[in-house]
Design brief:
5-stranded mixed β-sheet, alpha+beta, 17 helices, about 325 residues, Arc Repressor Mutant, subunit A, single chain
Length: about 325
C-alpha cells in the first residue's frame, strides 16, 4: 500500500470509541470510506487519509471537537499496538521512549525518511520530546492524539512529574482548557515546533511490568513487522540494510555503499534525494538509534557504544550524542 498508513488496530479502536460516544458506526465507515473487513486484522494497514477522515467524522458525529485529545487520553497504547506492550517490558521510561521512537512506524507510518518521528532534544530550556513530522498543521489532530497518549500513559506508572510545558504549531482550536487539563501543563499555540518539555527525572522512572524475556519476544515480533512494513524497493531501506552490519567499522562511505548497490555515487545521491533523504542523514540516524538502544540497556559502556556505532574517538561520539539528545551518553546509560 503506497503512502502513509496507520495500523488497523489503531483505527478500529478509534471507531469503537466514537461509537461508544454516540456516533453511528455505518455513518463513520461511510464518511471514511473504510471497508470494515479491513479492520479485522490488527496488523493490516489503513491509509492515513481514511484514518483522518474517520477521526474528523467522529468529531462531528460525537459533537466533540476535542475527540482526538480524548482518544489519546482514553486509549492505552498497549490496547492497540505491540509498541505499547514493549513499553511495559522496559526497565525504565527512557527505555520505553527509545522503543517508541524505534517502532513508531508500526503505529503510524508517515514516510519520514530515515528520521524517527519522535526525538529527545535538549536546549537551554531543558529536555524536550519533539514530534518531527513535516507539515504538522495539515493534521493537528495527530499532535493531539500523540501527546495525550504519551502523557496519559505515563500517569499509569505513578506520580513522577512528566510534562512541564507544551508547545504546538497550530492555532488554538477553541478548547485550550481541555489541552491543559489532559496534558497537565501550560500550552502555547502557534510555536515553531510541536514539543513537550519534560522533567528529566522521568527518564529514570522504573517500569518493568512484564518479565524481561517478554521484551525479547515482543521486539522480535515488532522487528518482523517493521521489516515487512519497510519496502525493500526504497533506496533508503536498501542503504540501511547495507550500512547496519558494517557501521562499527567506520567504513560506511557513500562510494563503497554505491558499489555494493551496483550504481555510481551520483546515482545513489539522486535516488536518495528523490526519497527526501541524504546518505549522511541515514548514517547519522542509524548511529543515533543504535546508540540509544545500546546505552539504554546499560550493558555496554560509552566507549564500547562509540565503537559499535562507528566512532573511533569517544569524545566525538559524546558530542554527536549531545547533539542528538541534549544529554551525555553517561546520563542515558545511568552512570550518574
Amino acid at each position: 500500500m503506497a503512502g502513509p498508513t496507520v495500523a488497523a488496530s489503531v483505527t478500529r479502536r478509534m471507531l469503537e470509541l466514537a461509537v461508544e460516544r454516540g456516533a453511528d458506526r455505518p455513518a463513520l465507515l461511510d464518511r471514511a470510506e473504510i471497508d470494515p473487513a479491513a479492520l479485522d486484522d490488527d496488523d493490516n494497514r489503513i491509509p492515513l487519509a481514511g484514518h483522518v477522515a474517520l477521526l474528523r467524522a467522529a468529531k462531528e458525529l460525537c459533537g466533540d471537537p476535542a475527540f482526538a485529545l480524548h482518544y489519546g487520553e482514553s486509549v492505552n497504547l498497549a490496547e492497540v499496538s505491540v509498541v505499547g506492550l514493549i513499553g511495559y517490558a522496559c526497565e525504565m521510561m527512557i527505555d520505553a521512549f527509545v522503543q517508541l521512537s524505534r517502532y513508531s512506524r508500526l503505529i503510524m507510518d508517515l514516510d519520514l525518511g530515515p528520521q524517527n518521528r519522535f526525538q529527545l532534544v535538549g536546549d537551554d530550556a531543558g529536555l524536550w520530546i519533539v514530534d518531527g513530522r513535516p507539515d504538522p498543521n495539515d493534521i493537528p489532530e495527530l499532535t493531539e492524539t500523540a501527546f495525550a497518549q504519551m502523557v496519559s500513559g505515563t500517569r499509569r506508572f505513578g506520580d513522577t512529574p512528566f510534562v512541564l510545558e507544551v508547545r504546538v504549531t497550530h492555532a488554538d482550536p477553541g478548547y485550550a482548557a481541555e489541552y491543559e487539563r489532559i496534558l497537565g501543563a501550560p500550552v502555547t499555540f502557534r510555536n515553531n515546533h510541536n514539543a513537550m518539555r519534560i522533567d528529566p527525572a522521568w527518564t529514570t522512572k522504573r517500569i518493568a511490568l512484564q518479565p524481561r524475556y517478554v521484551f525479547g519476544i515482543l521486539t522480535r515480533h515488532a522487528d518482523d513487522m517493521l521489516g515487512r512494513l519497510q519496502s525493500p524497493a526504497t533506496m533508503r531501506g536498501r542503504v540501511e540494510r547495507l550500512v547496519m552490519p558494517i557501521l562499527h567499522t567506520g567504513e560506511t562511505g557513500m562510494e563503497k555503499i554505491a558499489g555494493k548497490l551496483g550504481c555510481s555515487r551520483d546515482t545513489l545521491y539522486r535516488r536518495l534525494k528523490a526519497e527526501g533523504a541524504t546518505f549522511e542523514s541515514i548514517v547519522d540516524a542509524l548511529r543515533h538509534r543504535l546508540a540509544l538502544d545500546y546505552l539504554s540497556g546499560g550493558k555496554v559502556s560509552v566507549n564500547e557504544t562509540a565503537y559499535l556505532v562507528g566512532f573511533s574517538d569517544p569524545a566525538a561520539f559524546s558530542r554527536a550524542f549531545k547533539r542528538w539528545t541534549g544529554r551525555s551518553p553517561g546520563a542515558v546509560r545511568g552512570d550518574g
